[in-house]
Design brief:
Layout lengths: L1 H29 L4 E17 L2 E16 L20 H29 E12 L4 H5 L6 E5 L2 E2 L5 H9 L5 E8 L2 E8 L1 E3 L4 E3 L2 E9 L3 H28 L4 H7 L3 H12 L3 H19 L7 H21 L7 H32 L6
Antiparallel strand pairs: 1-2, 3-10, 4-5, 4-6, 6-7, 8-9
Length: 365
């Protein structure tokens, strides 16, 4: 299983990088910009093959990749060919840059569509967690217990939703709950607690959810789009909370994960079943896509920001009758500084990842 997990992690990184860089590559092709090189991986070249005008290559470090369009290294006053990146209008450059992170989102949607089209969640009658200081905990209910009967009503394993609804409707009642614990059968009498704000009763446990095969492409379409949207909004809220100070910087440092930490998380999830593993890969694509759209120099979002600023300057130029713009060589200074800061951050987080692995700490809390 360990070898399989390692292979799954490598495959995941390959497709995450491939989709992101293919987005940039497709953008170049759409607006007729020549691509000098399409690389999966960074560092020393391991293999390459030239197809048409483009060299396709694999490199030693599988932690990134790049698409090198003609004109990437801008030189002032150089003569630009029709296929040069900087000979294209701003909207064309915007397409090339934005399609990278957009394709990470596309991969996330594809994964979620696949999962939700063939799997469905079923709430079971198995106890996943018992909340402290609740009737269920005081009565002796434990994680792993399987509730088979409440009062005179029997429940099959996958009838968890029906069971929960029965408890919710049992206001101010003492329920006789029969459970199976290993080879034993036990019976508890548990008094329900009424939640006035939400108008339902409870005893204080969470049921386990299980995935079951259930072919439904319509569900796949709806759930993949909703889940991608929902996770994006949640991640944005986390980012806003960090910058607003709602989440302390210490917590951010302690719970952040770099390339090493992400690899460890993916490896652990690969050992826990293909479903959870693919959900994680989809989530990582959303995080990478959104992170790359962040308006920081060197990221795709930083380059998009400069394009938008140049559009604003074009508008001002029309009003003032004086040409104002940010030349690519000046813009590149910002991106180089941004890249240096990002590399320092990656080194710091990677060091933190290694320390946490040595200590045996969990990355998911």
């Amino acid at each position: 299983m360990e070898i399989v997990s390692v292979i799954l992690v490598i495959i995941a990184f390959f497709f995450i990088i491939l989709f992101h860089e293919f987005g940039h590559y497709l953008g170049c092709k759409l607006v007729k910009v020549k691509v000098e090189e399409f690389s999966i991986g960074l560092g020393k070249e391991l293999w390459s093959k030239r197809i048409g005008d483009t060299k396709f290559s694999f490199r030693l470090l599988p932690i990134g990749g790049y698409v090198l369009p003609e004109g990437e290294e801008y030189k002032k006053d150089q003569e630009l060919s029709e296929t040069n990146f900087y000979s294209k209008p701003l909207w064309a450059r915007l397409i090339i840059i934005a399609l990278g992170p957009i394709f990470n989102y596309i991969l996330a949607i594809i994964i979620f569509f696949f999962l939700y089209s063939i799997y469905d969640y079923k709430i079971t009658t198995e106890v996943l967690m018992v909340a402290p200081n609740t009737p269920a905990q005081k009565a002796g209910l434990k994680p792993g217990d399987i509730i088979t009967k409440i009062d005179s009503i029997k429940f099959d394993y996958y009838e968890g939703q029906k069971l929960i609804e029965y408890i919710h409707q049992s206001k101010d009642r003492t329920l006789e709950i029969e459970i199976k614990r290993g080879n034993e059968t036990k019976t508890f009498r548990i008094q329900t607690v009424y939640n006035k704000d939400h108008n339902f009763s409870y005893i204080g446990f969470n049921p386990k959810k299980a995935t079951v095969y259930s072919i439904n492409p319509i569900r796949g379409i709806k759930e993949s789009l909703f889940t991608t949207y929902d996770l994006t909004i949640k991640y944005l809220k986390v980012i806003i909370s960090i910058f607003s100070g709602s989440i302390p910087l210490k917590t951010v440092v302690e719970q952040s994960a770099g390339p090493i930490g992400i690899t460890k998380i993916m490896y652990d999830f690969a050992n826990n079943g293909i479903y959870n593993y693919l959900v994680l890969v989809a989530f990582i694509n959303i995080v990478i896509g959104l992170f790359n759209l962040f308006p920081f120099p060197a990221l795709d979002g930083g380059r998009i920001l400069f394009i938008l600023i140049n559009y604003l300057l074009i508008g001002i130029s029309k009003i003032t009758k004086k040409k104002i713009s940010i030349e690519p060589d000046k813009e590149e200074i910002f991106h180089k500084v941004g890249l240096a800061l990002l590399l320092i951050l990656i080194v710091f987080i990677s060091y933190n990842d290694i320390v946490r692995i040595i200590r045996g700490e969990n990355f998911i809390k």
